[in-house]
Structures are given as C-alpha cells and as structure tokens.
C-alpha cells in the first residue's frame, strides 16, 4: 500500500515538473517564435537595405535628372548605410531606393516595404503611434510661398507685419484673407495646420489640396492658389529655382518643427544604430559642408540645434 502511494506521488511530481518545464519555456517560445525579425536581421538575411524617399521634397529628397535619389536627407541616409555595412560586416550590402508618395510614406515603413524613410518628416506625437524617429536632422517649420506680384496686403498679413492682438488688426487680416485659395501637400503637418488656422480665423477661403510640392508650386504659378504652405526650406528652394524669380517665400516661420528620419516602431536596436551614425556624423565636422551645400552657411541657431541633438557614445 505504501508502494502504491509512493508511486502515485511520484507520478504527480513528475507531471508537475513537466508542466512547470512547459510553462517556463513559454516566454522563450513566444520570444523566438511569435516575434517578427527585427530590421537589422532582415537587412543581414537579405543582404540589402531598402530606403524610401520623397521625389518632390528638394532639398531634402528628390529624384535628380539622372533618375537617382538626391538631397540632404539622402546624403545622411548614405552615412547610415555605411554604418550598417560596418556593423554587420557586409561590404557588399545592396541599397534599394524606393520612391514613396507623401500620403503613403509612413504606411511603407509600418508594412516593412522600406527599412528607413529618408525625407523631411516632422516628429509628432500622433505619428509616433505608427513609426519611430531618429534624432532630429533639421530645424524645420511651416512657411508660405506666394507669387512675387501677390497683393501687398496679403503678403503683409502672411508675414505678420503690423500684427497686434487688437481686434481691429485681426478683422483687417481676416478681410485680406477672404476669398483666397490656399494649398498644402496632403498628409503633411502643414495640411493639418492650414485647416486649423482657417477654422480659427473663420475666413471664407477655399483649400486647393495638392499631392506633391511640385503640384503646389504650379498651382501658385497658374494662379489657382494664392499661397502654398509647407516646409519652409522646401519652399525657399522652389522659389530660387523658379524662372525670373516669379515666386517668393514670406519672411515668417509659422511653426518650429524638428525634422527626422522615420523608421520601424519599437525597433530599438536599429534606432540605436541610426542615431549613433547620425551623432558621429554631426561630431565629425562633415555636417557643416553638407548643410552649406543645400541650405547655405549655418547660422548660430542651426549650429546649436545640432549640438543639442547629437548624442554621445
């Protein structure tokens, strides 16, 4: 009888031990089987890195006359590619440049169609639900592009000249904006900002949505739009390249928005690699030449911006 009890006890202990072993293995099984491969693993296994870029966001990213990706953000991404090659010991790492539309760019990152987005994207809390961002790459903000022959009153209002908190000025400004047509690129922070400002001022205007900066610039040239709102550095570049200087950018920055590179959400290993590459590039002294090439000589505020955002090892 004692032997029977002992045998039953042994069986229960063995069963409990087996169950405990299975339960202990569950976290490991979930970690190894349920989690998708990280960006670095995908790059290593495929032997390639896929970079998304806007074709219309010069000087940050655009397609040049030879059909290649070019611009300030493109150059920064190329330094990141070099860091990936070194980190993974893949000297033959292939680079694929994939053009993405403004409204689809973050979806391309979420769906792993691209590993890194090389453009001019503002970091916002709403966007951080869907993608992560690198350390900032540029001190951006919203500006306005108008025709050189735009009414002086419109240019004064947009530039904030004579702006006061007096109701008389607000009424006069609203009157100058009435019956105007304004544009912004769909899916950008300028698009949301413009809609909110029109609602705040309660002016009767029409919004001419555009899918690209090029389309927005053309709408202003063709007089279908009185002003294009968007990243000011992009607008300044467009105005410089317009024949006979037909377009100008008003002397005002409506918002202050740090721009960064978008990458997959919750992939800290890849984000660390990207941030380390950018920080080392900022500290190397090469950033000054790259910045000057695309935006002109950096002023003290720009230099301070990069000093504050670069991370130390």
Architecture overview:
With 313 residues, this protein is of the alpha/beta class. It folds into 2 domains: 39-140 and 258-309, Periplasmic binding protein-like II (D-Maltodextrin-Binding Protein, domain 2); 142-249, D-Maltodextrin-Binding Protein, domain 2. It has 12 helices and 14 strands. The chain has helices at 2-34, 39-46, 72-88, 105-110, 152-159, 167-177, 189-201, 213-221, 232-241, 268-284, 287-295, 300-309; strands spanning 48-53, 56-57, 61-63, 69-70, 94-99, 116-122, 132-133, 138-140, 142-147, 181-185, 206-210, 227-231, 247-249, 257-263. α3 (72-88) crosses α10. 34% of the residues are buried.
Name of the CATH homologous superfamily of the largest domain:
Periplasmic binding protein-like II
Segments where pLDDT lies below 50 for 5+ residues?
1-35, 164-169
Quaternary state reads: single chain
Counting DSSP E segments of at least 2 residues, the number of strands comes to: 14
What is the CATH level 1 assignment of the largest domain?
Alpha Beta
**Beta fraction:** 15-25%
- Per the CATH scheme, the topology name of the largest domain is D-Maltodextrin-Binding Protein, domain 2
The tally of domains stands at: 2
Structural class comes to alpha/beta
N-to-C span: 70 Å
Tell me which CATH architecture of the largest domain applies here.
3-Layer(aba) Sandwich
Helix fraction by DSSP (H/I, runs of at least 4): 40-55%
Using only C-alpha atoms, the radius of gyration works out to 26 Å
Order of helices and strands: HHEEEEHEHEEEEHHEHEHEHEEHHH
Outline type: elongated
Average the pLDDT over all residues and give the rounded result: 86
**Total DSSP helices:** 12
């Amino acid at each position: 009888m004692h032997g029977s009890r002992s045998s039953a006890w042994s069986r229960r202990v063995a069963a409990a031990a087996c169950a405990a072993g299975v339960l202990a293995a569950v976290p490991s099984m979930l970690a190894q089987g349920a989690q998708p491969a990280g960006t670095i693993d995908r790059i290593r296994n495929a032997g390639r890195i896929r970079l998304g870029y806007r074709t219309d966001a010069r000087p940050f990213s655009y397609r040049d006359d030879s059909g290649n990706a070019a611009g300030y953000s493109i150059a920064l991404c190329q330094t990141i590619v070099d860091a990936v090659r070194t980190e993974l010991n893949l000297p033959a790492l292939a680079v694929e440049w994939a053009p993405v539309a403004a409204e689809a760019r973050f979806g391309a990152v979420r769906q792993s169609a691209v590993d890194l987005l090389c453009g001019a994207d503002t970091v916002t809390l709403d966007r951080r639900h869907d993608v992560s961002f690198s350390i900032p790459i540029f001190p951006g903000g919203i500006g306005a592009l108008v025709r050189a022959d735009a009414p002086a009153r419109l240019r004064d209002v947009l530039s904030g000249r004579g702006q006061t908190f007096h109701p008389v000025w607000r009424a006069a400004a609203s009157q100058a904006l009435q019956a105007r047509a304004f544009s912004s690129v769909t899916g950008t922070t300028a698009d949301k900002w413009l809609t909110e400002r029109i609602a705040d001022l309660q002016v009767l205007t029409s919004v001419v949505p555009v899918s690209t900066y090029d389309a927005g610039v053309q709408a202003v040239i063709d007089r279908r739009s009185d002003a294009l709102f968007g990243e000011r550095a992009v607008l300044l570049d467009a105005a410089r390249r317009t024949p006979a200087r037909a377009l100008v950018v008003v002397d005002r920055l409506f918002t202050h928005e740090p721009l960064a590179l978008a990458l997959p959400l919750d992939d800290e290993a890849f984000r660390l690699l990207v941030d380390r590459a950018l920080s080392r590039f900022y500290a190397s002294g090469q950033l000054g030449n790259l910045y000057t090439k695309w935006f002109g000589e950096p002023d003290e505020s720009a230099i301070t911006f990069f000093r504050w955002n670069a991370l130390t090892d």
